[in-house]
Design a protein that fits this description.
Number of strands of chain B: 13
Number of strands of chain A: 13
Order of helices and strands of chain B: HHHHEHEEEEHEEEEEEHEEHHHH
Distance between the termini of chain A: 40 Å
Mean pLDDT of chain B: 88
Shape of chain B: globular
Oligomer: heterodimer
CATH topology of the largest domain in chain B: D-amino Acid Aminotransferase, Chain A, domain 1
Helix content of chain B: 25-40%
Order of helices and strands of chain A: HEEEEEEHHHHEEEEEEEHHHHHHHHHHHH
Strand order of the largest sheet of chain B: 11-10-9-8-7-12-13
Structural class of chain A: alpha+beta
Low-confidence stretches of chain B: none
Strand order of the largest sheet of chain A: 3-6-1-13-8
CATH architecture of the largest domain in chain B: 2-Layer Sandwich
Radius of gyration of chain A: 31 Å
Radius of gyration of chain B: 19 Å
Low-confidence stretches of chain A: 286-298
Largest sheet of chain A: 5 strands, antiparallel
Chain lengths: 511, 312
């Protein structure tokens, strides 16, 4: 049999077996073909920082309340060397970290995964005190603000029908920059925040109120302080207001961390304490569809599937199973389209790094390292080094660059840059070497062409490898690897023209 | 952009087809080292009395680099080459001396330490296929035939002949330009001029895959170009098949003013640009040679060349 026939028979055989197994699994064993609904899971990291004085330290932080429209999936506390307890007091949970002696800058972490459920937020009535604590604005020092507050309250009362509309009017008036009373109030207090003043005025009007501390769930936020809303009792229920606008209602993406006036963070034995939040959105299948459905099945095909591995190995396999998809794409792009890239499979490795860093960050970091690397390499070439030591030197420089970028960007608050560690250092060093030789031999245009080609291929691979469907198929139907193998073997025997050749030889047709 | 069917009608050979149908089928891997290592090619050629540029010296080890001053001695014109380089990479041409300086063909001055660095780079495998450690060859400089004077700029023009199963199937002249920095590689901006197999006259010329009619630097038109001693050149190329046994290869030949045609190097993976230069696809001729009767393949080089010249 000629090699050509062998290639096609083997290729088709592999594709048929792979596709057949996958069909069997989906039709007979009911493994879903579509990945199902994806839900946004928010990962929130609270970072507690303070300066310890060298004595015993006790830090206690309020933990998020259970909220009807949010569900906490997972919580992680981390703090090296600290004792840790969670106390529940009247439904208010607090995490307490403690240590006998600590000095210098201390950092504690609390991380949780939350996802937003369908449905509205309902504030519970019980447990919240409806007592009104009048502010102590007595004495001549406060006479002006007392007058201003009374005038603001009176006007709001006249322009409203009930408590609900009164609060809106009061907050609107208070936030109006042209309102003389509000300007007087804001300038009259030096150490009270506008929210405190608003609370004080509500108390003067005999309306029970307290603050609601929490954070807005928005993707890619880092080092945020907590946000504050107002909760007001109208006689029957608690209503939420935005103190800065007077808008009623809880924003749907607001995660309530704490209700009431107790502090968010208490630190004994430390100073300059603060809490900062970082928020990241992840898309995750709403339910582990396949896993649950397979629970009772006894089919050998599933018993020996990747699901039988421990969770940690499963997540590694998720990546490994995607690499062949990238490899097939690279072959397709090189053999059928004819794009020139630097290094055969370098784009696949690059796209794996992009998965960790997110695309834009990844491309930016790659171009930055490549540019600086080429610049340093141009100096190294003057030093008469042997090739091996020059590459090793470039590897070290790449590592220095990576650490530098991580540290600088972390200091600037861009924590995503920490994922830079996923970049394949040695491959990047070789790419720099390859590009710099290309620069000398064929000029900067060829370097640009190949960099652009490699990046384009890496981005295409990235898009394929992050596609939910492809991810789902490769993980749930690993027999599709046979289909990939068959296609790769058949592509390896493709003797037709490349797309780029249709352009390259176009003048031959005209003549 | 051309349609695949149009290219097929023109008989254009594509990269995938070249790799699978010709290189993989007709070139045994075991024979590759003979052409990938220019030193081995040269020695094999000398054994068969095929003329090649004179070998002046070889450096294989790092410690020998210290003594290059005594190796170079009083040579004023020479070429430094990696023995396993590809695509003309790493070739340094010295055309003269000026006190302690060495002059490149474009007039650039190099010091001995520059040459030493270049040799170090070659030895550590910078220019070799796959980055493997390499050795360095010193060759005498080719002084090209006067006939080419106006057709090239700062570089030696060479004739690329694709030889299939011992039959020359297509030929082109590659001329350096200012854009190609004195090198005869088409993708770097050199000009490819297709040559008529039977007469050695020019057919067509291209630069950067586009047709041109005259040399961009010298302004000389290619239409009256005719290679002297054409049949002898083709016989030399055809004879390389007996020497290395590769079914599908490219022979690079230069015309030396004194020595006549010499084999510069052989290539087991010749490029496809020759089709653009000739304005004709390779496929038709390759198919014709594949259909030859077995006794035709037994003919000596001279008769193979004549047969091919009559056929096209």
């Amino acid at each position: 049999m000629s090699p050509r026939a062998q290639v096609y028979i083997l290729g088709l055989l592999l594709i048929i077996v792979g596709a057949g197994l996958a069909t069997y699994k989906s039709q007979v064993l009911n493994l879903p073909i579509t990945p199902g609904k994806y839900q946004t899971v928010w990962t929130i990291e609270a970072k507690v920082e303070f300066q310890a004085r060298g004595d015993a330290v006790k830090a206690s932080m309020a933990l998020p309340k259970t909220q009807t429209n949010m569900e906490v999936l997972n919580e992680i506390f981390s703090s090296s060397g600290y004792g840790f307890t969670v106390d529940s007091n009247n439904g208010n949970e607090r995490a307490t970290w403690s240590k006998r002696t600590a000095s210098g800058q201390q950092t504690l972490y609390y991380k949780l995964d939350v996802y937003q459920r369908q449905g509205q937020f309902e504030a519970s009535i019980d447990g919240m005190s409806t007592a009104v604590n009048k502010p102590d604005w007595s004495g001549t020092r406060f006479s002006a603000v007392r007058e201003a507050a009374a005038s603001l309250i009176e006007r709001s009362q006249q322009e409203s029908a009930d408590t609900e509309t009164f609060v809106t009017q009061l907050l609107r008036g208070f936030n109006d920059p042209d309102n003389i009373d509000s300007r007087l109030l804001l300038s009259g207090f030096t150490d009270n925040s506008p929210v405190d003043i608003a609370l004080g005025m509500l108390a003067m009007a005999d309306i029970p109120a307290h603050i609601l501390r929490g954070i807005y769930l928005e993707d890619d936020r880092s080092r945020l302080p907590s946000s504050v809303l107002l909760e007001v009792y109208d006689g029957e229920q608690w209503l939420v207001y935005n103190p800065a606008t007077g808008t009623k209602g809880l924003p749907s993406n607001f995660l309530i961390w704490q209700r009431g006036d107790k502090s968010l963070l208490d630190v004994e034995g430390g100073s300059r304490s603060r809490v900062r939040f970082s928020i990241l959105a992840n898309n995750v299948p709403a339910r582990e569809v396949a896993l649950k459905q397979m629970g009772g099945d006894q089919a050998a095909l599933l018993d020996y599937s990747i699901y039988s591995l421990p969770i940690e190995q499963q997540s590694i396999f998720k990546f490994i199973l995607l690499v062949p998809v990238g490899a097939l794409l690279v072959i397709f792009i090189r053999v059928v389209i004819g794009v020139r890239t630097a290094g055969t499979f370098m784009p696949v490795l690059l796209s794996i790094a992009f998965i960790q860093t997110s695309l834009l960050n990844g491309v930016a970091i790659f171009l930055l390292i490549l540019a600086i690397g080429l610049w340093v390499r141009s100096y190294l070439s003057k030093l008469d080094l042997l090739l091996v030591s020059r590459i090793a030197a470039v590897v070290v420089i790449v590592v220095i660059l990576m650490s530098g970028i991580s540290i600088v960007s972390y200091r600037l608050g861009i924590e995503q840059a920490l994922t830079i560690t996923f970049f394949p250092m040695v491959i990047i060093a070789w790419t720099i070497e390859h590009m710099s030789i290309l620069w000398e031999d064929d000029g900067p245009v060829e370097v640009l062409v190949q960099t652009a080609g490699s990046l384009a291929v890496a981005i295409v691979c990235y898009m394929a490898m992050t596609n939910h469907y492809i991810e789902h198929w490769m993980f749930n139907f690993p027999e599709l690897l046979l289909v990939l193998l068959g296609s790769i073997i058949m592509l390896g025997h493709y003797t037709g023209y490349r797309l780029s050749e249709l352009i390259r030889f176009r003048h031959m047709v005209q003549s | 952009m051309a349609l695949p069917t149009q290219l097929l009608r023109c008989g254009v050979l594509g990269m995938n087809s070249r790799n699978i149908n010709y290189i993989a089928r007709y070139n045994q891997r075991a024979l590759y080292p003979l052409v990938d290592d220019k030193l081995q090619t040269k020695l094999a050629a000398q054994k068969q009395n095929i003329s090649v540029p004179e070998l002046l010296g070889v450096i294989e080890r790092q410690w020998q680099v210290k003594n290059i001053e005594s190796l170079i001695g009083e040579w004023s014109k020479f070429v430094i080459k990696p023995t396993r380089g590809s695509g003309g990479k790493g070739i340094l041409v010295i055309t003269g001396r000026d006190f302690e300086y060495f002059l490149k063909s474009n007039g650039q001055k190099l010091e001995l330490k520059d040459i030493r660095r270049h040799i170090n780079n070659i030895l550590s495998g910078l220019y070799s296929l796959g980055g493997k450690p390499d050795s360095v060859m010193f060759e005498s400089l080719i002084e090209y035939d006067q006939v080419f004077t106006d057709y090239t700029y700062e570089g030696v023009p060479d004739i690329r002949i694709v030889v299939f199963k011992g039959f020359p199937v297509m030929a082109m002249l590659r001329c350096a330009t200012h854009a190609s920095d004195g090198r005869a590689n088409l993708h770097q901006g050199a000009i490819g001029i297709g040559l008529d197999l039977s007469t050695g006259k020019s057919l067509n010329a291209v630069q950067y895959n586009r047709p041109v009619s005259e040399h961009p630097d010298t302004g000389k038109s290619f239409s009256e170009l005719e290679i002297p001693g054409w049949d002898e050149i083709l016989v030399l190329a055809a004879g390389c098949f007996e020497m290395v046994g590769l079914g599908y290869m490219g022979c690079d030949i230069v015309l030396d003013r004194h020595a006549g045609p010499v084999i510069l190097e052989l290539n087991a993976r010749p490029g496809l640009a020759i089709q653009l230069a000739s304005g004709e696809g390779l496929m038709k001729r390759l198919k014709a040679v594949e259909a030859f009767e077995p006794e035709l393949l037994e003919l000596p080089p001279e008769q193979r060349v004549r047969f091919m010249q009559e056929m096209v």
